[in-house]
Design brief:
Helix content is 23%, strand content 38%. It folds into two domains: 129 residues, Urate Oxidase, CATH 3.10.270; 137 residues, Urate Oxidase (Roll). The chain is α+β, with helices and mostly antiparallel strands. The radius of gyration is 25 Å and the shape is globular. The strands form two sheets. The chain has an eight-stranded antiparallel β-sheet with strand order 1-2-3-4-5-6-7-10.
């Protein structure tokens, strides 16, 4: 005869921090008010926070906003509301759901914007034909419909310089160190950055473009003894150029370009032929903040 065991008593639990909403909402808007069209493409995630205990603990969905409704709202509000920056659109979405959802008290919206430039025809940008660029713009807006915290950013900005970079003066007399010093190397990285603001009165599109340009300009304007130093100088330059920004965070992998050994084939290699090493790679992360 099989002996049954008593099931253990369920432990007492409570619901912790939680949210729900819709992710991977793909949105493109085309402005057709003139013959010269404009486009913006976003991937959107909207999440709501509030009093959702009953839904989790009791399966009671009373007064919950359906996630399908969230998706439809993104497209519906984009028809009239998405006229400027993703950050401003995020504020509008959160405000809408706080008003529309009886149990919603706040939330956040996250955006990835894919950048498009006009195709060049005869040296002029075409009126309605575009080419997608590699970098993406990012944004996160969180709030309660009245006050908001906004974080803007960018991803996948791939930059490279063929000289004016080195790596020397580091710890050499260590058992496992084999890398030789150099004062002339290729330096390449994918820049990921995000920044916060010290004011609510912000032209988010203008600030994003200034940050985007400044990061690229600073990458070129100095000898780089390390990727860390270039990261720091980028942050300093952005905070100098953009008084609206309170601090900026960078993630920058070191995409190694290693001089390939052609001498074994009787061929010279005067820093011309390189192997692009996909992994592993050095990874640098840091916030650069205002000292005052």
């Amino acid at each position: 005869m099989t002996q049954t065991r008593n099931a253990p008593a369920k432990v007492q639990v409570r619901l912790g921090e939680n949210n729900y909403g819709k992710a991977e909402v793909k949105l493109m808007k085309v402005w057709r008010d003139t013959a010269r069209h404009a486009i913006r493409e976003l991937t959107v995630r909207v999440a709501m926070t509030g009093d959702f205990d009953a839904a989790h603990a009791e399966g009671d969905n009373t007064d919950l906003v359906a996630t399908d409704t969230v998706r439809n709202t993104v497209y519906g509000l984009a028809r009239e509301g998405f006229t400027g920056s993703p950050e401003a659109f995020g504020k509008e979405l959160i405000t809408h759901f706080v008003k529309a959802g009886p149990r919603v008290t706040g939330g956040f919206a996250e955006f990835t914007e894919f950048l498009w430039e006009r195709l060049s025809v005869g040296g002029e940008g075409h009126d309605h034909a575009f080419v997608r660029q590699m970098p993406q713009r990012t944004a996160r807006v969180e709030g309660d419909g009245q006050s908001f915290k906004v974080t803007s950013g960018l991803e996948n900005l791939y930059v490279l310089k063929t000289t004016q970079s080195g790596w020397a003066g580091y710890l050499l007399n260590e058992r496992f160190t084999t890398l030789p010093e150099t004062t002339d190397r290729i330096m390449a990285t994918f820049v990921t950055a995000k920044w916060e603001y010290n004011t609510d009165e912000v032209d988010y599109d203008d600030v994003w473009n200034r940050v985007y340009r400044q990061i690229q300009e600073t990458f070129t304007d100095h000898y780089s003894p390390s990727l860390q130093n270039t990261l720091f100088l980028m942050g300093q330059a952005v905070l100098t150029a953009c008084p609206e920004v309170s601090r900026i965070w960078f993630q920058m992998p070191n995409k190694h370009h290693l001089k390939y050994n052609l001498e074994r084939f009787g061929l010279a290699n005067d820093n011309e032929i390189f192997h692009v090493d996909p992994e592993p790679y050095g990874l640098m992360e840091a916030w650069v903040e205002r000292a005052e």
